[in-house]
């Protein structure tokens, strides 16, 4: 989901898809959202202490999917540039095609592009690891290539 808009009754095929949508929302809006007391039956996402934003989804066995049961859409907190969900794997999923088109993309330029497009703080080492993973996906590793003989 590029821009998730939550509402009560919204359905997801699994808890992992719901968690991914919440993470995408947190990165897009610059919020420090955490998951509390999650298990096979339920997932609860809350914002910082003092902020009323909450999204709760639970498993519905009849439909075999997760449904949003409670959603409080308003934030009292301000936008944060330090979002914990920005990881090297997330960068790979977002920028793999662009790295495929330009494999010699310089690290400082990629780092600046990510910071400007998502308005978040990203460590240069995280960008380096992400580019290395993306190039490994694109070109394959040497071990895999030599193993094909």
Written overview of the protein:
This protein has 149 residues and is an alpha+beta fold. It has two domains: 11-72, no CATH class; 88-145. It has five helices and five strands. It has helices spanning 15-29, 88-101, 107-118, 124-139, 142-146; strands at residues 11-12, 34-36, 42-46, 54-60, 65-72. The chain has a five-stranded antiparallel sheet. The longest helix has 16 residues, at 124-139. The chain is globular and about 50 Å long.
Topology of this structure?
Elements lengths: L10 E2 L2 H15 L4 E3 L5 E5 L7 E7 L4 E8 L15 H14 L5 H12 L5 H16 L2 H5 L3
Antiparallel strand pairs: 1-5, 2-3, 3-4, 4-5
Count of the domains: 2
Q: What separation lies between the terminal Cα atoms?
A: 40 Å
The strand line-up of the biggest sheet is: 1-5-4-3-2
Note the beta-strand portion. Answer: 15-25%
- The overall strand count is 5
Quick recap of the structure?
The chain has helices at 15-29, 88-101, 107-118, 124-139, 142-146, and strands spanning 11-12, 34-36, 42-46, 54-60, 65-72.
Feature tags:
five-stranded antiparallel β-sheet, 42% helix, 2 domains, alpha+beta, 5 strands, 149 residues, 5 helices
């Amino acid at each position: 989901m590029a821009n998730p808009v939550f509402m009560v009754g919204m359905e997801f095929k699994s808890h992992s898809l719901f968690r991914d949508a919440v993470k995408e929302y947190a990165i897009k809006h610059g919020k420090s959202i955490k998951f509390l007391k999650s298990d096979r039956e339920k997932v609860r996402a809350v914002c910082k202490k003092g902020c009323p934003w909450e999204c709760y989804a639970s498993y519905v066995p009849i439909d075999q999917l997760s449904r949003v049961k409670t959603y409080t859409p308003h934030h009292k907190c301000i936008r944060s540039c330090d979002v914990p969900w920005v990881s090297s794997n997330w960068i790979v999923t977002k920028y793999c095609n662009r790295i495929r088109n330009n494999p010699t993309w310089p690290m400082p330029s990629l780092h600046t592009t990510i910071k400007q497009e998502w308005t978040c703080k990203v460590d240069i080492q995280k960008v380096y690891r992400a580019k290395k993973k993306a190039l490994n996906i694109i070109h394959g590793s040497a071990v895999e290539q030599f193993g094909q003989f």
